[in-house]
Write a structure and sequence with these properties.
- The chain has 83 residues and is an all-alpha fold.
- The chain starts with 10 loop residues before the first helix and ends in a 7-residue tail after the last helix.
- It is elongated.
- The protein has one domain.
- 40% of the residues lie in helices and 0% in strands.
Length: 83
């Protein structure tokens, strides 16, 4: 593919593509927990007992503090971090 055309009129959702913000976040963190070596600098500090996306969501729901080393992820997930 040589060109990428972005259409903001619901075209992606009409074709059942997983392109919502929440779907992006879920896919990203599932990838992180499947291969942490692929994304080595996401969190600053240990993730005590958090080893999958559902555990991460549970930890967030319980208001546990998470600190990010990666500023892009911290910026795109402001509700995930307490700075």
């Amino acid at each position: 593919m040589k060109k990428l055309i972005i259409i903001g009129n619901g075209f992606d959702k009409a074709h059942n593509l997983k392109t919502t913000y929440n779907e992006f976040i879920e896919d990203f963190f599932n990838g992180y927990f499947n291969d942490r070596k692929k994304y080595p600098n996401i969190f600053a500090g240990p993730l005590y007992g958090i080893d999958n996306y559902n555990a991460l969501k549970t930890s967030i729901a319980k208001s546990h503090q998470l600190y990010f080393e990666n500023k892009f992820i911290e910026f795109t997930c402001p509700s995930f971090s307490v700075s």
